[in-house]
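Morning!

This is the sequence you dropped in the shared folder:
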Amino acid sequence: MPIAQNPLSVEVTLPREEVALLKVEGYLDVDTATEFQHHLANQLHHGRRHFLLDLSQVPFMDSSGMNIILRVYQEARELPGSVHIISPTPAVRRILDLTGVSITVPVSESLDEALSRVDAQPEGPRTPDA
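The structure's back. Tokens below.
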């Protein structure tokens, strides 16, 4: 049996200049969370402030995946920016609901809904007013 039975695939697209859409496919767990974190860190490094995480192809997520989502949520808030989860599978949605992550990180059913939520957010200053 191969070690990586469920390798993680992350496809990054940019629906807007400051918005990164990450389509995640596979198990988001202790074995794959670091790879997911690298994709998010790369987008932060390139100036993205809003992160849309499409989890419609993630059959399983453990606490490692949740911790990465919460960490990028904290970093994005400081920019200011945002994180939105799109179309989680029923198993992942259950984990998000049971742990309260879905209360903190908005969950949308579609890309359009998530982009509308990004648009509705007030733009805060990047630096304190002088």
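Headline: The beta strands are 9-16, 19-25, 50-57, 82-86, 107-108.

More detail when I'm at my desk.
O.
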